[in-house]
Amino acid sequence: MTVNVADNTSSMNAAIESLKRESVPKIIFGAGVIGEVLFQACSVAGIKIDCFCDDKVKGPVCGRKVLHSSELRGSYRDAIFFIASANIKDMVDRLRDLGYSRWYSCGLLLRDFKASQKSVGSSAFTPEHVEYKVSTCVLCHDNYMNPDRLFVQSVDIIITEKCSMKCTDCSNLMQYYEKPENVELDETLKTIEAFCRDMDDIYEFRIIGGEPFMNKELHLVVEKLVLEPKVKKIAIFTNGTILPRETQIPSLQNSKVTLFITDYDELSRKLTELTQLLDERGISYFSQKAQGWTDCASLEKHNRTLEQGVEVFKECCAKNLATLSEGRLYRCPFHANGARLKAIPDVEEDFIDFLEKPLNEIDSAEMRKRLRSFLVEKTYIEACDYCNGRPYGAPKIIPAIQIDKPLPYRKVSS
């Protein structure tokens, strides 16, 4: 299996020349923005791409057909794959399940490649956001190739249960909170410190809610993350309904920080004012229409078998959205909020509690082992039995349908 390519230029050039001479089909696994940039890089390098493979994107892309992974064996029994997704482990596992062993990291071609706007076709992504996504992907691949490093692509941190909208299908379960509250600041800062201590690299902290700007102390969380050298990027997810306070502006102007604005049309009532303010103050942001919602927001025990639960976990597109909440690390925001709501029972192996004892009493080497096992080796969590599932390619639903009052749900017995 192709697992690594030496970092020096001569080795990479030799690998590219070898690939150009290979007569087997060559497929880009991932037809999103990174896949489009990778296609251009392959073209520049003289590597002919036969098609794309993606279970979410419909083709054609860059003039090539896009196959669902289930179609690969029928069309290409032998192929070399270029992985164009930050979730490289999922891609490698999927290829292995399909019987393919030859793959290359996109870093082989994208490490020093400068994408042009042409490389993303009709995509609405700005050149800055394309660069953001490509650099994320390359870093994730580099860390995957180095198993001794403890790395996470992104980790969500919940700072509030409050939201300025009430969507019946919110995948973060805000529609169930009867008396939403902001998260206690001291707890949040201690959790960040404890989590960062034993990680080698964290590409991105994603600040989420609810609506993060409903927490007046948001800037204090951002300032904490800005000062953490292991954190490369800070993403704040907002819905375009609230303008940042003047006291919050300086923290948002840091080069690490980007606002990701979901545009809900008329529901995002402050969107125009928000983008004007961000432009005036030199704050980085990216705005995109609401899309990709699936029916994954119900809280109901399914009584699946263990084998069925493992399959739900394996196919989930959110299982790598590690989430910090109430001093604990969860594998996804659904589990984190389900636990906050007391709708999912506590299973000790399914979370890591950083605040169970003082940080100086937690053995760092032992915690690194626990984190590696939890983030890399986990194959199932009990929360999967309370979730409808979020498989790649799941049918899409209308986003942001509003409700007047919180939805009822069943709490688990304590």
Number of strands: 13
Order of helices and strands: HEHEEHEHEHHEHEHEHEHEHEEHEH
Structural class by helix and strand composition: alpha/beta
Sheet with the most strands, sense and barrel status: 8 strands, mixed
**Overall geometry:** globular
Distance between the termini: 48 Å
**Tally of helical segments:** 13
Description:
- The model is unreliable at 1-7 (pLDDT under 50).
- The protein has helices at 9-21, 33-45, 72-75, 88-98, 107-110, 127-144, 185-197, 218-226, 249-252, 271-281, 306-315, 333-340, 364-377; strands spanning 26-29, 51-53, 66-67, 80-83, 103-105, 151-158, 201-208, 231-238, 257-263, 285-289, 323-325, 328-330, 352-353.
- It starts with 8 loop residues before the first helix and ends in a 37-residue tail after the last helix.
- The chain is an alpha/beta fold and 414 residues long.
- Helix 7 packs parallel to helix 8.
- The strands form 2 sheets. An 8-stranded mixed sheet has the order 10-9-8-7-6-11-12-13, sandwiched between helices. Strands 3-2-1-4-5 form a 5-stranded parallel sheet, sandwiched between helices.
- It is globular, with a radius of gyration of 22 Å.
- Strand 1, helix 2 (33-45) and strand 2 (51-53) form a beta-alpha-beta unit.
- Helices cover 32% and strands 14% of the residues.
Keywords:
13 helices, globular, disordered N terminus, 414 residues, eight-stranded mixed β-sheet
Q: Short description, anyone?
A:
Helix content is 32%, strand content 14%. The protein is an alpha/beta fold and 414 residues long. The strands form two sheets. An eight-stranded mixed sheet has the order 10-9-8-7-6-11-12-13, sandwiched between helices. The protein has a five-stranded parallel sheet with strand order 3-2-1-4-5, with helices on both faces.
